[in-house]
Structure formats: structure tokens, C-alpha cells
Write a structure and sequence with these properties.
Chain B: This is RING-type domain-containing protein. The complex is a heterodimer of chains A (387) and B (261). Chain A has 387 residues and is mostly helical. In chain A, 69% of the residues lie in helices and 0% in strands. Chain A has a domain at 188-302: Cyclin A, domain 1 (Orthogonal Bundle). Chain A is elongated. In chain A, 37% of the residues are buried. With 261 residues, chain B is mainly alpha-helical. Chain B has a three-stranded antiparallel sheet. Chain B is elongated, with a radius of gyration of 38 Å. The chains are: A mainly alpha (387), B mainly alpha (261). At the A-B interface, helix 1, helix 3, helix 11, helix 15 and helix 17 of A face helix 6, helix 7 and helix 8 of B.
């Protein structure tokens, strides 16, 4: 179908669509890499400052050589997060973005919050929370989403809405985030599709094309409630699960509708597809579509908000504590990391200040060698007739 | 050549005016019979249209515009230059148009031969016919005063290949004409069809949206049909895309990892 090719042209399909297995594989790979780096970083930090331990959980008071040697061994065995724990932390970041969006004045629309959440999720496919903590990235993700989706808030205003946050904190990880997003800022959301589908369902019901569901049986109300429920699901469950990676937006909104009203979606899809053309390809497409949408629906249904689940809250707390221990010490200060990166990009290993000093020195040397650019003083010129 | 002869030759053959008695007398010539008469005679004979050359015994009919001032003192040279100009205007080929250098040299020789034929009046009729055929076959207008002949189509010779550069067959060894492939008009959608298959924006949809517009939709110039089209496109774009199947076919895990360095 033509519309399918339109979707296939999007960056969401080309770069950010995965099967369950490949998604798991990428996350495992990212986790392995990050764990390795965290261990290496701890090791480096320790060999650089043998006297004082940067690893606080391992209490070593004396600075003698034996203890150090022992500690290095322990350090290399830093307990890193597992893939599931990382995922939980990212989800915690997503819920924080949602809270931020609601707390803002003006309130950030849900589709922009959703964009920010997807940015965060995409970023943490190839980056680990052990390297960059989600709390460092999430404000930037939200700010980037407001810029990318035409809801521009000035940075000063954005920062003023949030406590304990400087402009640099928001700005610093921006390039990093963009890099992690592979510079694709387009997120195809199912919300707009839901609005279109809602209208079409209503029209079809009015025209008596939805079988039992018609104007006489209160179709508008039924469809309306289902759509409202679906909308809520899209704003929460669809964001907190991997739905965007695994399914297309049109499948997601139909799945959300299916969670709300299974029968309605079945009748709608059946009538819709048989109206298009009734041959074998359509029936097989319909079957496949139903199974895919059902799978997506069960994924959406399986989501439980940590707000109403005390055990999940506890789990998050535990992971948070664990993360403070195994956070990569070299990437803690995101502002400094970003600055160092920018300096490196601009001119090799030299920082700006060093470069400027070097240039000035070179100029002074040149001056000493050549004298003044306008030539030597006039009184030195023989025969100038001044005497 | 003494003084008397040159002065006598300078007289107008029609009215007998002499530059010595008429200071500022100017002569004109024509490129058909190359007779040289004074400006006054040209005005007198040709102001009422086409007329015969007034020099005794010459019956070439001429227009007034065909009389012009002489460029070279020697009329023979004047004539040869005129012939050369006419022939090179018709036989106008550059070296790049020929297959080989040899072909170009042959062409130059042919041109020289034709010029000399005309200059020395050998085979004038045959030479002129050749030139005319060539000019017609290649769409060259020989006389700028002649309008395009009605229904004048370059005569096609049966034995010539249709892509031969010279259809009259006078010049040999020209490169074949390569007609460039016609470019298709630019398509900004790069072949993507602009029709839709899953849906069709009907009037009933648009009236339904119009029924309860959101705040932004009340702005001037807001197009409800476009909104509906966009919503429906979003609703169905990718409906038949099964990522599980399509992504396992192409290995999407081999992505560049932009992770920390």
C-alpha cells in the first residue's frame, strides 16, 4: 500500500524499528560495553589517585600499598547494572519527563512529552545509564522535544520552571543526545492517527457500515469512550513500553483502541479492509494485522504504573542506590564532559586558553625578529635631516 | 598605367561624371554583375523598384538595396571575397564535427574547390546546385531576404542514414548526430504516487471535524481537509508494515554505536 511506503520512508522505520530479539541484543551489547568502561574508569581513577579512594562503598582507611593492590582487584569487580535494571532506570527517567511536562507552565502538550520520552528511550538503546544518568539527559530531551515539535520555550523560562537546574545542565548534553538519536528528530506518534481513526469510525457507524454498532445503538458514545481510554493509554503505556520500537504508529493506536474496546476494533477492521478489496491477500493481511495488534495490545495492557505498585517503587529505589555506586566516574559531570568534547573538537588536545597563549607567544616572537611592522624608529634612519 | 587611363576608368559608365569635375562623387557596386556606377545613377535608376543594370549590354535585374560601397579597390578581389563569404556561410563546419582530421582536411579542400569553381566560372551551375542542395538539406537560409519557402522541407535522400549529419551527402566523414535522450519532467516526489489506498478524505469527514474544531483550527486559512488528510495518513501509514518480519529480514542490529568514547 502507498501509505505503508510513506511510513517506510520515515527515519522511525529505517533507524528505530527493531524485532524483540534485536532490541534485546542491542541492549545487552550496550550494557556489556558500558560495564567494561565503568570498570576501566574505576581502575584508572584508582591508579591515578591511590591515596584516596573514589569508591566509597569499599571502606579503606589506610593508604598503604598492600591495601591499594587489594582494592584494585575489588574495584575491577564493581557490580554493574543488568539490562533489566537499566531499563527500569530509563523508565523512571521517562516518568520523570512526564511529571516535568505536567508541572511546566504552560503545560507541555502530551505529544511533545511523548517525543521527549521517545528521545530518551532511543538514546538509551546505545548508551547506558551507567555512563550518563537519565537525570542528566532527561531535561535536555524535553527541551529538545519542545524545539523539534514547535512548542518553543526559551531556555531561561524552561530552567526557571524547574528546581536546581542551570542552563548549562540543559544545554550540555544536547549534542550527545543528538548523536545518540543519530540526528533523527522525527517521531511518528499514534495520537494523531487516533484522532483520524476516531472520526472515521464515527462516520462509518453513522453510515451503518459498522454492523451492529450504529447511531441507533449509541455508537458515538461508545467510540468516544474507547477513544478517550485509548488516548490515555497512548500517553502512558505506549510511552513506557517498547511499543514504538516494535510496532508502527497505526498498529499502536489500533491496539490502544483494542484494549479499550476489543469488539469495536475487530468489527471496524473487518469492515474497513473488506471495503478496500476482498481477495485472499486482504484476508491474510487481516489475520496478520489482528494478531499483530493483539500482541501490541497485550504489551500495552501489561504495563503497570509504578505509582500504584509499591514493590516497583522499592525496586526503583534499590536500583537507584546501586547506580550511584557503579556510575562511571569520568562522566559524572556532564557539563565538564561536554566542554571537554567541544574543546577537543575545536583544536586537538589544546584547550582554547592554551591555544590563545601559544598564538600570542608566536606573535611576540615574530615581533622580536622583524621589529615593528611599520619599520624601525625614524631617528635610526641615517640622513633624515633631523639634527 | 598612366594618369589618363586611371582617371578614365574612374568615370561613371552611365552618366559619365568624373570625380575631378564632381568632387565627393561616390561609387557603388553590386554583387551580381560587379558593375560600378555612381550614387546618383543608382538613385535615379532604382528608386522606383527593381530595374536592370544601367550599364550598356548588362541585363541583370537588381534592387536598390543590392548596391553597396566597394570594400576593396580591386573588383576581382571584391568578388572573390564575396564568393568566399557566401560559400563559407553555407559550408560552415568545425573540426570537432568530423570523425578524423583527414575528413576535415577533405572538407576544407572541397570548400576551396567550390570557391575556385565559382571564382573562375567553371562548372558554375553544378557548383551552385550542390551548394543549394546542401543548404536546403541542412536548413540554411542562403538569401536573408528570402522568406522561408512555403512547405520547404529538407529533401530526404533514400540512401542516407537518418542520423547522418549531412543529408545532402556533400560532406563526408561527419560524426553521426546523437539525439540526446529526452529528460522526464522533474518529479519532486521521486516517483511516489500521491493517491491513497487505505482511505479517502470524504466530505462527511471534513464536516465532522468542522463540527468541533480545536482552538488552533479557528485561525484564518486553516484547512480542515488537509487536517483530515494528515490525520488519516497518520492513522494508516504503516498499517500493513510488520516490523517483526521486515526487520528480521534486514539485520538492523548493525547500527553504529555512538556511545561514549
Amino acid at each position: 500500500m502507498i501509505e505503508d511506503d510513506v511510513y517506510r520512508a520515515s527515519s522511525q522505520y529505517r533507524y528505530w524499528s527493531y524485532t524483540k530479539e534485536s532490541l534485546a541484543r542491542i541492549r545487552q551489547n550496550t550494557n556489556d560495553l558500558a560495564s567494561e568502561r565503568v570498570r576501566a574508569a574505576f581502575h584508572r581513577a584508582h591508579t591515578a589517585h591511590p591515596a584516596h579512594s573514589s569508591n566509597s562503598h569499599n571502606a579503606v582507611s589506610a593508604g598503604d600499598a598492600d591495601a591499594d593492590a587489594m582494592e584494585i582487584d575489588v574495584d575491577v569487580d564493581v557490580e554493574t547494572l543488568t539490562v533489566d535494571e537499566e531499563l527500569k532506570i530509563v523508565e523512571w527517567g521517562c516518568s520523570k519527563i512526564m511529571e516535568m511536562g505536567e508541572a511546566m507552565n504552560p503545560r507541555i502538550p502530551s505529544h511533545i512529552v511523548a517525543t521527549a520520552i521517545q528521545y530518551l528511550r532511543r538514546f538509551y538503546l546505545t548508551n547506558s545509564p551507567m555512563t550518563y544518568h537519565p537525570k542528566q539527559i532527561m531535561t535536555c530531551a524535553l527541551y529538545l522535544a519542545t524545539k523539534a515539535d514547535h512548542f518553543y520555550i526559551s531556555l531561561a523560562k524552561f530552567v526557571a520552571e524547574l528546581a536546581n537546574l542551570s542552563e548549562d545542565d540543559v544545554k550540555a548534553p544536547e549534542f550527545l543526545l543528538l548523536q545518540g538519536l543519530r540526528f533523527t528528530l522525527d517521531v511518528r506518534h499514534p495520537m494523531k492517527g487516533l484522532a483520524g481513526g476516531h472520526i472515521e469510525m464515527n462516520v462509518m457507524a453513522d453510515e451503518g457500515r459498522l454492523g451492529d454498532i450504529s447511531k441507533a445503538t449509541g455508537s458515538a458514545k461508545r467510540i468516544g469512550t474507547a477513544a478517550d481510554h485509548a488516548k490515555r493509554l497512548l500517553a502512558t503505556a505506549a510511552q513506557m513500553t517498547d511499543a514504538y520500537f516494535l510496532y508502527t504508529p497505526s498498529q499502536i493506536w489500533l491496539a490502544a483502541m483494542m484494549v479499550a474496546d476489543r469488539e469495536l476494533v475487530q468489527i471496524y477492521l473487518h469492515n474497513k479492509l473488506s471495503e478496500l478489496s476482498s481477495n485472499e491477500a486482504t484476508t491474510s493481511l487481516q489475520q496478520k494485522l489482528m494478531s499483530t495488534i493483539s500482541a501490541c495490545a497485550s504489551l500495552l495492557e501489561s504495563y503497570r504504573s509504578p505509582k500504584d505498585d509499591a514493590s516497583q517503587r522499592k525496586e526503583i529505589k534499590r536500583i537507584g542506590k546501586k547506580l550511584t555506586v557503579c556510575q562511571n566516574p569520568e562522566k559524572m559531570d556532564i557539563v565538564a564532559v561536554a566542554r571537554a568534547k567541544a574543546a577537543e573538537k575545536r583544536g586537538g588536545k589544546d584547550s582554547d586558553v592554551g591555544k590563545a597563549l601559544k598564538k600570542r607567544k608566536l606573535e611576540r616572537d615574530m615581533m622580536d625578529k622583524d621589529g615593528d611592522v611599520f619599520g624601525p624608529d625614524l631617528r635610526n634612519v641615517p640622513g633624515s635631516g633631523e639634527d | 598605367m598612366d594618369e589618363e587611363d586611371s582617371v578614365g576608368a574612374n568615370k561613371c559608365p552611365v552618366c559619365g561624371s568624373d570625380p575631378r569635375t564632381h568632387p565627393g562623387l561616390r561609387f557603388k557596386i553590386n554583387t551580381k554583375c560587379y558593375h560600378r556606377i555612381c550614387e546618383g545613377c543608382v538613385d535615379r535608376h532604382f528608386s522606383s523598384g527593381k530595374a536592370e543594370c544601367p550599364v550598356g549590354g548588362c541585363h541583370v535585374s537588381l534592387w536598390k538595396r543590392e548596391w553597396r560601397t566597394q570594400t576593396f579597390e580591386d573588383l576581382k578581389i571584391e568578388r572573390e571575397v564575396e564568393i568566399r563569404r557566401r560559400v563559407t556561410k553555407i559550408l560552415d563546419r568545425r573540426e570537432e564535427e568530423f570523425e578524423t582530421k583527414r575528413d576535415y582536411d577533405d572538407f576544407l579542400e572541397l570548400r576551396e574547390e567550390l570557391v575556385m569553381n565559382l571564382v573562375f566560372r567553371t562548372d558554375v551551375a553544378a557548383t551552385n546546385r550542390k551548394l543549394k542542395e546542401y543548404a536546403q538539406a541542412n536548413g540554411i537560409k542562403t538569401d536573408p531576404t528570402d522568406g522561408p519557402e512555403p512547405g520547404a522541407k529538407a529533401p530526404r535522400r533514400k540512401d542516407m542514414a537518418p542520423d547522418a549529419a549531412d543529408q545532402s551527402g556533400l560532406i563526408k566523414g561527419l560524426k553521426r548526430i546523437v539525439i540526446p535522450e529526452a529528460k522526464a519532467p522533474y518529479d519532486p516526489f521521486m516517483g511516489m504516487p500521491r493517491t491513497r489506498e487505505y482511505y479517502e478524505v470524504k466530505e462527511s469527514y471534513i464536516t465532522r471535524v468542522r463540527g468541533k474544531p480545536a482552538e488552533a483550527m479557528l485561525a484564518g486559512g486553516y484547512d480542515f481537509a488537509q487536517y483530515m488528510d494528515e490525520s488519516l495518513l497518520r492513522a494508516f501509514a504503516g498499517l500493513g508494515v510488520f516490523i517483526e518480519d521486515e526487520m528480521s529480514a534486514r539485520d538492523n542490529t548493525a547500527i553504529p554505536v555512538p556511545g561514549p568514547t
